[in-house]
Automatic annotation (TrEMBL):
Matches recorded under PANTHER family: ASPARTATE-GLUTAMATE RACEMASE FAMILY, GLUTAMATE RACEMASE
A single GO molecular function term of this UniProt record: amino-acid racemase activity
UniProt cross-references to InterPro entries, sorted A to Z: Asp/Glu/hydantoin_racemase, Asp/Glu_race, Asp/Glu_racemase_AS_1, Asp_race
PROSITE patterns assigned to the protein according to its UniProt record, in alphabetical order: ASP_GLU_RACEMASE_1
First-level EC class: isomerase
Similarity field: Belongs to the aspartate/glutamate racemases family.
A Pfam family reported for this protein in Swiss-Prot or TrEMBL: Asp_Glu_race
Keywords recorded for this protein, A-Z: Isomerase
Enzyme Commission number(s) of this protein: 5.1.1.-
UniProt protein name: Amino acid racemase
Top-level taxon of the source organism: Bacteria
Amino acid sequence: MIDFSEFPTLGILGGMGPGAAVDFQQRLLDASPATKDQEHIPTIVWNHGGIPDRQLALKNLGESPFKAMLHGLKILERSGVAKVAIPCNTAHFWHADLQQQTNIEILNMIEITVQQILDHYKYGDKVGILATKGALSTELYQRELSKYNIPYVMNSEEEIEKKFMPAVYAVKRNESEKAGIIFQELSQRLIDVGAGSIILACTEIPLGLHAIQSPILNVSFDTTQLLADACVRWFY
């Protein structure tokens, strides 16, 4: 019989949103060098859509998601996972607080993404940040990019409020094509003001862009994919 304790297990703290967590799992499978079932990364997934809305919490209009996220983290911890991935950019506002509650490393999606940008960065290039209002207001990517003096551009507050956020919620309603058109438009705005590449800083964005097979994907840093790739490097 196989001794399952010999295999490190990846914990996935999902639900933000549920579709993004499923997309992450598929990326993990696709990125794996496994040639048979037994070689894939063992995973335990907590994918609960009941986690309070991160955007409302950051605007002080709703309950903080921290307790719910911590509940899921502790379930993963008790399940014996060796590493945790959170496929949600905005949720990383609570990353440090969650990390203080466990000895298990929680991979940092923001740091992973910016390190990948550094590997491909040409001095002086601007990076576009396409993100939720919550992620932008907490400056998750702005601070990390500034550490390395990487200039960045963002959409206007009006574009985020009136176009981007409704598109994110459209993905959650399974209207990915409709959302993809808006994501593509807003990405092009960033390119028009000098961005050489775009950070897809919300895990709903690639779901929309892939739905319309957008060419924006060719000039983007897909944070979902980069997190999956980091998990593959860790395991193999």
